[in-house]
Amino acid sequence: MPTELPYAADAEESLSFDELEVLRLQYQKELSQSHVTVQTKFNYAWGLVKSPMREHQVEGVRLLQEIYRAEPARRRECLYYLALGHYKMGNYEEARRFNALLLDKEPSNLQAQSLASLIDQRVTREGYIGMAIVGGVAALSTLALATIIRRASRK
């Protein structure tokens, strides 16, 4: 029995410009008619969250949050993409929060389990980078202080 989780492919895959444009045009058309269906809004938000562009991700998360608040029946399907959007934007605590809500409802959701693993890996990696930066600054400070003390003792 394989122990590896299916990869949360949405974390890396984007829609093509043309695919996103189709979703945007449908959303804009319905918006201009003053009636955007929840499905059209969700589809456009989904495409935006998958984008590599941060401003698209921010807009996608905003639209998903609107759906999440206004449509209780659609909350479950919004949770994964809210978690994914926050993950892609580097908001790891928010990503964990939304993903945990989904895992509470669906503990065997393999895609959410995979995303949880990706979030943990990114947090760990960024923690190591932060520690390396702090260590580097401390080492440079120590060298600078030693140089100052050495020069002061020569006088």
Helix and strand composition category: mainly alpha
- For this structure, the quaternary state is single chain
Q: Could you report the average pLDDT, rounded to the nearest whole number?
A: 86
Query: DSSP helix count?
Result: 6
Low-confidence stretches: 1-6
Largest sheet: none
- Measured by DSSP, the beta-strand proportion falls in under 5%
User: What radius of gyration results from the CA coordinates?
Assistant: 22 Å
Describe this structure in words.
The chain is an all-alpha fold. The protein contains six helices and no strands. The chain has helices spanning 17-32, 38-50, 54-70, 75-89, 92-105, 110-154. Helix 3 (54-70) packs antiparallel against helix 4, helix 4 runs antiparallel to helix 5 and helix 5 runs antiparallel to helix 6. The model is unreliable at 1-6 (pLDDT under 50).
Keywords:
155 residues; mainly alpha; disordered N terminus
